[in-house]
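Instructor's aside before we start: the two examples that follow are unrelated to each other. I chose them only because their records fit on one page, so don't look for a connection. First example below.
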Amino acid sequence: MVDVSAKAVTERAATAECRVRFPAAVAAQLRQAGLRTGKGGIVETAVVAGTLAAKRTHELVPFCHALPLDGIRITVDWHGERELRIECAVRTTARTGVEMEALTGATVAALTVYDMSKALSHAIVLGPARLLGKRGGRRDFGQVR
């Protein structure tokens, strides 16, 4: 793990997204059902899963620092007729950034959507997953919401 003890404690934030694309018939079925399946509410479950994943990123990614997270916000919205867009925004006051936490939250939320929808089709596609922006540290990147 990188030694960050010489870095200043600053406010840091990152936003990431992951997309979930459904076959047309599955998207129509999910829209009609209010994004609910036999397993329950997809959005609510994905938000909980993504939040838990962001909080435990240091347990999943070997060289990540355990960070005190000040806030996690996950949104799930339709993007077009067949695609869900999942966004995860994470904030902390620490010596290192939260890009990995935002990416982990977004991708695990997407995996949860897949898990809750796979009985309808295995042709669901995840991705791309990408960092939209980060603030704090040596340089800012993109846009943080």
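Example two begins here.
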Amino acid sequence: MKTTLKLSVKSKILAAACLMLALASCKKETKLPPESLSSATALKTNAIGTNGPKGVCYVEVNSNDLRNVAKYTLTNGSPLFDIGIIFAANINFNTSSRTAELFFNPQVTNVLSNRDTYVKPLQDKGIKVLLSILGNHQGAGMTNFTSMASAQAFAQQLSNAVSTYGLDGIDFDDEYSDYGNNGTTQPNDSSFVFLVTALRELMPSKIISFYFYGPAASRLSYQGVTVGSKVNYSWNAIYGTYSTPAVPGLAKSNLGPAAIDITATSAGTAASLATRTVSDGYGIYLYYNLPNADSHTYLSNISNALYGFGTVYN
């Protein structure tokens, strides 16, 4: 799960909303479309310009610069990271309309509003940029939508954000929602499936990923539809460990069992997890908490194991 640093950052989020769209709820539940409509796993699975697992990197933009993702290359010239994730936007709860609302704190707002400065430099190198979504202690989350209509309304907000800010997709992280606050409901079996189904319909060619943690991790199918048929990737959430996410519908090439915290996981452990990722044939290696400081020596231990190339800091 996320570190103590991450929790403290979330608790200090300032009350500034950039995108606040009202949602319309509906009590009548809609049946899901068949899985055959999904094209979730159509993306290429190799790293940019190199055979091997994709590198996925979360950046705490409250304290670190997203542009650091583009500063690291392999010695063959390819980017080290294939996907950079803006951590994080939130699901807030509007107590008047009793609906979920997408919320950006000032740091996330700065990154998105200045996409040419922070996002485009990554995309120009072929790196995909996702926006991570998680709770904000207000009772609203990805697993307690009570109808397809309410899930669709929030999915529309997410799709609008991706379109408005020129992003490559959405990452779901079911943490810090504090389900039950403000009189909200507890997690249910249909909500997360409704949400990813609705978002996939709105973003058929964009990336949807799942940080394998929280109530959503045990609510991955409903009415015969699996979350794995709608999302592209899922990865382990416990840093310094190796554990394959149990997401029905995703192949090994779309899963990441290895997860590290760059500032906390030892270099030896990180390299060992990289070696195991390759030997077991998985397609994702997850990095968390890329700092502003030059970390190329540490990262070289990983890249040598993943690709046979060291890492350079530009």
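Residues 88 and 132 are 5 Å apart (CA to CA).
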